[in-house]
User: Fold these one by one.
Assistant:
Number 1:
Amino acid sequence: MADVSSPPRVLIDEDHIQARVEDLAAQISAEYHDKGEIVLVGVLKGAFIFLADLSRRLTIPRRIEFMALSSYSEGSVSGEVRLEMDLRHQIEGKHVLIVEDIIDSGQTLRYLVDLLKARSPASVKTCALVRKQREDNADAPIDYLGFEIPDVWTVGYGLDYEEQHRTLPYIGILDIAE
Ligand code: IMP
Ligand code: MG
C-alpha cells in the first residue's frame, strides 16, 4: 500500500503547470476564435482543477459542462469504462472540447470521443493535461496536450490515488507498491 501521509515527490511543479496551461489556453483561443461558443466538457473528477484554470484563461466564448466516467473499480487496476453522469444539455451543432486530466491506456478518451461524436456536434476535440508514455495509448485522440510523462502513478492538480492528494498544487509521483 502507498504511504499517503508523506508528500509525493514533485514531477511537474506549480509554475510549470501554470505556464503550460497559459500556453494551451492561448493556442485554443487562437484556433477557435472565429467559431463562436465552445462547450468545454470536463471529465470528473480528475479534470476539475485543470478545467478551472484553463477555462479562466480562454479568451473565447465558452460554456462549462461535466461528465463523470470511471475506468477503475478501485485503486489503480484497469477495468471497463462506465458512464456515471451524462451531459445535461444537447451538443448537436456545437463545438465540443473534452478536457481530461490524464491519458493512461487511452480507453476513457476513446470511449468519450466516440460517444459525443455520435450526437452530431459541429466538432469534437480533446485537451489532456498529461499523457503517460505507453505504447498502447499512442493513437489516443489527443488534440491539445500539456505534458508527456513516464508511466508512473501521479497525484495532485486534480489527480488522486484513492481520493488522496487531489488538491496538491503540483503533479507528484506516488510510489505504489503493488
Ligand atoms: P485510461 O482510460 O486508462 O486512459 O485512464 C484514464 C483515467 O484513469 C484518468 O482520467 C484518471 O482518472 C485515471 N488515471 C490514470 N492514471 C492515473 C494516474 O497516474 N493518477 C491518477 N489517475 C489516473
Ligand atoms: Mg479522468
Note: Residues 14-31 form the longest helix (18 residues).
Number 2:
Amino acid sequence: MKSLEKIFINGGTPLRGQVEIAGAKNAVLALLAGTILTRDCCRIDNIPFISDVTVMLNILRELGADVRRINKHCVEINTRHFNSGEVPYELTKHCRASYYLLGALFGRFGHARVAMPGGCDFGVRPIDQHIRGFEALGAAVSFEQNAIISMQSNQPQGTSIYLDIVSVGATINIMLAAVRARGVTVLENAAKEPHVVDLANFLNSCGADIRGAGTDVIKIHGVKELHGCEYATIPDQIEAGTYMAAIAASGGQALVTQVIPKHMECISAKLIECGVQVKEFDDSILVAANEPLRRCNIKTMPHPGFPTDMQPQFGALLTRAEGTSVLNEGIFDNRFRYMDQLVRMGAKVTVDGKIAVVEGVQELHGAQVKAYDLRAGAAMIIAGLSAHGETEVENIEFIDRGYEDIVGKLAAMGADIRRKIVKTDAEMRNVA
Ligand code: UD1
C-alpha cells in the first residue's frame, strides 16, 4: 500500500519565469503500444515521467519486453521475446490506454486477448468503433466474462473503414491493427489530434506506410515487417495548455517552453478572448495576464476544436472571469463533476447535463477539494493558485497519471505549493 499524499496551495501569487513542457502523455502511450509491432529495438525520447507511462512500461515488461531506461526521459524497448497476445485485468486496470494493446497485439500476432481497461471516469466510454474497425480488418471478436475481448484472424486484410464517431482511441487502435495487414486500409472520419499524427510518424519511422494522418482520411498501405527506430515524442498540448491557464488564473506572466505553438492555437484563442496576452515564438509561448479576466464561451470538440481535456482547467479559470461563461461539453457525457468542488471554493456554477454556466465571482477561497480525475485535478490546482487562503487537494494520484512534477514546476514559477505525506505507508496499512 502507498502512503497518502496531498497537495497544499496558498493562492494569490502570480506565476512568473518559465516552465518546460514534457512529452505528450496521449502520444507516448500509443507509441509504447506501437513498439509491439516490431521485433527490433525502439529508442523513444522525450517520454514524460508520469505514472501512466510507468504502468504501460510495466505492462510491456510483464509481457516479455526488454525495457531499458536510458535516462529519465528516454527508454529503449525491445519486444522480440513477446510470446503471447494475452493481457489480464491486473495489468490493464490502471491505464485506459492499455486498450491500444488490442490493436498492437493483433497487428503483431493476428490475435489478442485483452481485459478492458480502467482510466478516468467521465461517463460511458464505449469502444464499439474500435471493434468495428478490427472486424472490418477480418478479426473474429468475442467478449468473455470479466470484460475480456478476444480476437483472432488468420491474416488481417486491409479494407475501408468509416468511423461513425470521431474517436482518437479508435483511430489509433485501427492504425496499429492495420499497419501490417495485407493490402490498403482507408480510414475515414479519422481523428486529427496531434498524437494521431505522432503515432503515424513513429510507425513510418519504423518502415510503415501511413499517409494522411492529421486529416480525416488516413491511408495505410500494409507492410510485411517493421524495424526499430529512434524517435522523440511531441510536446504535450494539454500540459502546456494547463500551465497557460494557470498563469492566466494567477494573474501572472511566464514563458511556456518546448511546445508546438500550432497545437496550442485553439487554447491561445480562448485565452486571448479572456483578455490574456499570448505571444508565440518558434517553440515557446509567452502568457501575460495584466488585466482582469473576461468571460468566454467554450464548446469542446475533436481537434482542431477546443479539447475536452482542457475543459476543466478553463472551468476553473472562468470562475473568476468578469461576466457569465457557458461551457458546452461536446465529447463526454459526465465531465462536469469537478464543478461541485469549485463551488466549495466559492464559485457560482450551475450544471445541466453537458452544459455548465459559470458566473464569475470576485474571489475564490481555499478549501479541501478532491481530484475526481486527471484534468479535474489540474482544475483544482488552478483554482487553488488563484484563491485566497489554503487549498488542500486530495486524490492526487490522478494528477500524477499525467503531469510530471507539477508541484516542482509551479513552485519554480513562484507558487506557494507543496506536496505532503499525510499518512505514511504503515499508517495506511493500519487503517486498512
Ligand atoms: C482520448 C484521450 C482522452 C481524451 C479523448 C478525447 C487517450 C489515452 N485518451 O480518449 O484523454 O479526452 O481522446 O480527445 O488518448 N466513442 C464511442 N465509441 C468508440 C469510441 C469513442 O462512442 O468506440 C465516443 C466516446 O464515448 C466519446 C467520443 O467518442 O464520447 C470520443 O472518444 P475518444 O476520442 O475515443 O476518446 P478516448 O480515445 O477514449
Note: The mean pLDDT is 94.
Number 3:
Amino acid sequence: MSTENLRIAVQKSGRLSEDSLKLFKECGIKFESGGSKLRSVSSNFPIEFLFLRDDDIPGYVEDGVADLGVIGQNVLMENSRKVDIVKELGFSKCRLSLAIPRNETYTDLTYFAGKNIATSYPNLTNQFLLANGVKAQTHEISGSVEIAPSIGLAEGICDIVSTGGTLLSNGLKEVAEVFKSQAVLISNANLSQTKKDLLAKLLFRIDSVQRAQNAKYVVLNAKKENLERIISLLPGIKSPSVVPLATEGWVSLHSVISENDFWEIIESLREAGAEGILVLPIEKMIL
Ligand code: ATP
Ligand code: ZN
C-alpha cells in the first residue's frame, strides 16, 4: 500500500476556517485542529492538513507544496494562479462590490469616471471597470478599506460585502456588484495518480455531505384515500415508502425531498389531508 498522503491547505483562522473544518469532519475525516497547530495528520484518511493564511493558499497549491486548498474565489481570481477548481463548496458566500458615501447621489457606473477607488482587489476592480468602459484610478490598500472615503484617500471603495453592515456603519452604500464569491476546493494541476484517486474518494464524500444538506427526510400520516393526491404534490418522488399504521385505513408516508420544495407545498399537503408531518435532517446521502 502506498504511503502517499494528500496535503490540503486550509485557512488557519478567519471566515473560511470553521466551515472548512466542519466539511472535512462531516466527511468522516478525523484530525486535530485549533490552538497553535500548523499541521495535522488525519488518523483515519491519508490526508494531512496545513493551517495557513488564506492569501498564501493558491500559491502553495500552484507550486505543489499543498495538493489541495480551500480558498475564496475572490482571492483566487484576484491573483490568477494556475490551479484547478474542483468543487464549489457553498460556504463563505460574499460579493465584491463598489460602494460610495451614503449621501452621494448615484446614477450608474459613469459615477466612477475619473475618481479614486480604494480596494484590496485592484485586478478584479480594474477588469470590471475596463469591461464597463469606465476610466477610474484604483488604489491598493491591504485592509480597513471602508475608512478610505472618510479620510480623503478615495471617493469610493471596492470591497467584500456580505450583509452590508460594515458599509452602513462606515457611512457607505453599495452601488454595484463586481464579483460573486464562495469557497472553492482547488487542486494542483499535476497530481500523481495515487493522489488523484484519493481526491476522487474525498469528492465522493463531499458530494454525499452536500446532497444531504439540502435534502430532508419527510414522514407524514394520511388516510389511504388521500395518498395518491399527496404523492402527486411531492415533487420528484418516484416511489415513497408507504407503511400501514395500526389505525385502520391510515398509512405513514416516508420520503426524501428538497427543503426548498417542501416549504412551498406544505399548505397544499395539509389541505390534501397530510397530518403529523415530520421533517428530519439527513446526515449523508449516497446515491
Ligand atoms: P487571513 O488572516 O487568513 O489572511 P483574511 O482577513 O484575509 O484572513 P477573512 O476575513 O477571514 O480573510 O476572509 C476569508 C475569505 O472569506 C474572504 O476572502 C472571502 O472569500 C470570505 N469572506 C470575507 N468576508 C466574508 C463575509 N462577511 N461573509 C462570508 N464570507 C466572507
Ligand atoms: Zn487573507
Note: The chain has eight helices and 15 strands.
